[in-house]
Amino acid sequence: MSGFLRNLGVRLPLIQAPMAGGPDSPALAAAVSEAGGLGSLGCAYLTPEQLEQAIAATRALTPAPFAINLFVRSDPPDDAGAMARVAAALEPLRRELKLTEQPAPAKPLPGFDAQLEVVLRLKPRVLSFTFGLLAPHQLAALRAAGIATVGTATTLEEGEALQRLGVDAICAQGSEAGGHRGTFLGDPYDALTGTLTLTRQLVTRLRVPIIAAGGIMDTAGIRAVLHLGAFAAQLGTAFMLCPEAGTHPAHRAALKSAAARTTVVTRAFSGRAARGIKNRFSELFGDRAQQIAPATFPQHQALTAELRSAAAAQNRPDLMQLWCGQNAVMLRELPARELVGALIDGLVSI
Ligand SMILES: Cc1cc2nc3c(=O)[nH]c(=O)nc-3n(C[C@H](O)[C@H](O)[C@H](O)COP(=O)(O)O)c2cc1C
Hints:
By secondary structure, the chain is an alpha/beta fold. It folds into 2 domains: 225 residues, TIM Barrel (Alpha-Beta Barrel), CATH 3.20.20.70; 116 residues, no CATH class. It is 36% helix and 13% strand. Strand 8, helix 9 and strand 9 form a beta-alpha-beta unit. The chain is globular, with a radius of gyration of 19 Å. It binds flavin mononucleotide.
């Protein structure tokens, strides 16, 4: 049993990954935490009020600890040239989805400082974060509030930076992982190290305890990363078909289809590299030939928002954002408690 989990009173070396934007939910996080793992809530897109409600809703379902997850952002200024380029590329798709010619004004993302203030006030037991480093004074404030911190690394260099910062644990996000790449130092396409390699690099080179994430879907996968020296496995895609998850019905159908066998890392949806099911939209924007350069995150995400939600409402998987890891083939559709039971079957709680 690792010190990190023991301090929290978490029995199983299993973390349900934060999945902002719909797939995770208070019901899912609470069910996983009740079953002995550590549930997470991806709260990056929530306003301070919504974040407060999400924490309250989860606490109403379980007294067990859970993690809140945020994006550490420093947004570049909006770029008018990029906006015109992206708008022109989206125009034929907007027409296809029968959207008005004039896109609805984009909603800005809630500010990180205001989100962190809620976390410090409501004191969930764990704050995990991705896309960057907290400032030292923010980390000190979390520590003073008794909140354990988990940073996300996609390279050894990022792991070293998180260790210097002084986090309590590091999530090694292998390239198999679904959703946004956490990369914050250098080009995300140079940071596609697999889970096995990255976990082993961080375990052997760092003193901070390591969580492994990316493509882990069953007991054998969990056992493998524990064997590599990680103290817990973090699984996202594996939980996306649970009835407690907020995964959109069309996204569920795509995860169960043969299309989920082919995933790509693409900047097409948000402007940040993320892994999802390859479709028509994922191939529109990016860095390859035939692709149009996206705007940066979060400007690009705001520019595509209306189209993405219309595609979901109209059940158009060819234009939807379908985040998914490389191992959806192994998905099981079970209630979260049963899934946790199946995932840790035969694993001694350590
Ligand atoms: C739909 C989806 C949304 C995600 N959102 C977040 C997020 O908000 N914050 C975060 O740190 N990681 C996020 N991730 C990445 C997960 O934390 C984790 O790295 C990944 O799910 C592990 O790979 P797997 O999906 O193959 O299990 C997301 C992943 C998915 C699939």
